[in-house]
Design brief:
Blueprint: H1 5-19, E1 28-30, E2 36-45, E3 49-57, E4 62-71, E5 78-82, E6 89-95, E7 105-115, E8 120-122, E9 126-130, E10 138-142, E11 145-149, H2 154-172, E12 183-188, H3 191-200, E13 208-211, E14 216-220, H4 227-248, H5 257-266, H6 275-284, H7 302-336, H8 341-349, H9 353-365, H10 369-406
Parallel strand pairs: 11-12, 12-14
Antiparallel strand pairs: 1-2, 2-3, 3-6, 4-5, 4-7, 7-8, 7-9, 10-11, 13-14
Helix pairs in contact: 2-4, 4-5, 5-7, 6-7, 7-8, 7-9
């Protein structure tokens, strides 16, 4: 496996910065010899502004100062010049509505100053969460999973945590999981609240959302009599994306959309009962989507996107039932190696994707029943032919010999 040194260094730095959290109320932050940063604060108004403030002090005059910041998982660093007041005060307001960070991501910032001696000094980095502060979040934790919610009682949070725990056990049967890296699940009480969060964070609207790099899951579940079913459906689905990313790393993006969405749907503790009906209707109307079309992404319109999820769940389940968990593992490894969507299946399972698609339609949806019957009976037909071939050939040979003798003159 080839390793990108630049990305490795970036990940290492990000890990160190995240692990060594410096409280925002630190009174003095000492950088290299030359400057001292005091009273560094950050005020987040989610989706609107991020306000930075501090005091930079030095024994000699400051010629220029800058605020430097970025997302912990980003490679792009933002540099903003700040004016230093006589008492050393600096401030900067970042427009988070135009320059967007993902919701519940972590940011890191530090100050840099060039002094009158033309030497440049940098303060120690400070990390802070870019959280959706519009709601009164509550939280409950078990192992490395924390559930956050703002609507519903204590039972609501406990039920969600149980669904996450059971989901993790199910996922572990397919993907080895770690209980060390944290996972945060944020439950919005309605789709509108979740949609606004995603839009403010620069994300497209979906029924649920996962940022696998951050280990953050966002879902919309309303408190009520159906809450347990929704939790057992949505939470394991989104957790699977996190676990797949942690298992596959950056090569997660090489996996076909139908594969990782199909695996995630297969891990749901309460599968969607309407998927079967959607597949039946699409099969009868000849409107099924070829899986080659579902490799890069799912359709944008809701109807076809729903069908894509239904197909993927059924198709991946068919592959698991036919080739076993090891077959699915070989499939993800094949795409990790960079095979195309069609050839990845050939390399892993010995069958091209298009042929797998046809077999799934025949076996699961009942299309081309004559072809299915002929294929299933072909081994027996071949065996029957072989069994009958010897006596038939013997009879033909005997007939020829008799005919030959009968044609001889007396």
């Amino acid at each position: 496996m080839l390793i990108n040194p630049r990305k490795t260094v970036i990940r290492l730095v990000a890990f160190i910065v995240t692990a060594v959290l410096i409280p925002l109320n630190t009174q003095r932050v000492h950088g290299q010899e030359g400057i001292v940063v005091e009273n560094a604060t950050v005020a987040v108004s989610f989706g609107q502004t991020i306000k930075f403030a501090a005091k930079i002090k030095s024994s000699i005059p400051i010629k220029q100062a800058s605020l430097i910041f970025r997302g912990v998982n980003e490679e792009v660093t933002r540099v903003e010049t700040v004016q230093v007041a006589k008492d050393g005060s600096v401030s900067f307001t970042y427009d988070a509505s135009l320059n967007i960070f993902p919701p519940f991501s972590w940011l890191v910032f530090w100050y840099q100053a060039t002094l009158a001696d033309d030497q440049t000094y940098t303060s120690a980095p400070i990390t802070f969460p870019y959280a959706d502060d519009r709601f009164p979040w509550r939280g409950i934790t078990r192992a490395n999973v924390t559930v956050h919610w703002y609507a519903g009682d204590d039972k609501f949070g406990a039920t969600a945590l149980d669904a996450a725990g059971t989901g993790m056990l199910t996922i572990n049967e397919f993907i080895p999981i770690s209980l060390s890296d944290p996972i945060d699940i944020y439950i919005y009480s309605n789709a509108t609240d979740l949609q606004s969060t995603l839009l403010l964070g620069g994300e497209d609207w979906t029924g649920g959302h996962t940022n696998p790099k951050l280990g953050v899951v966002l879902v919309a579940i309303a408190p009520g009599e159906n809450q347990a079913i929704e939790m057992e459906t949505k939470i394991p689905h989104e957790l699977t994306h996190v676990m797949l990313y942690r298992s596959l790393g950056e090569k997660y993006t090489l996996q076909p959309t139908w594969l990782f969405e199909g695996i995630a749907s297969m891990m749901e503790l309460y599968p969607n009962p309407d998927y079967a009906h959607a597949l039946e209707v699409a099969s009868q109307n000849d409107s099924l989507i070829s899986f080659d079309e579902l490799c890069a992404s799912f359709p944008a319109d809701a109807g076809n996107a729903y069908l894509a999820y239904a197909q993927s769940q059924s198709f991946v389940t068919y592959i698991r039932d036919t080739y076993g968990i090891s077959g699915l593992t070989r499939l993800t490894e094949s795409y990790n190696d960079g095979f195309t969507c069609e050839l990845g299946a050939t390399n892993a399972l010995g069958t091209p994707l298009s042929q797998l698609d046809a077999r799934w339609r025949e076996s699961v949806l009942g299309q081309n029943l004559t072809g299915v019957a002929a294929r299933n009976l072909s081994p027996f037909i071949l065996l029957m032919i072989l069994v009958l071939l010897v006596p038939i050939w013997g009879a033909i040979d005997l007939f020829r010999q008799r005919k030959k003798r009968g044609s001889k003159p007396e």
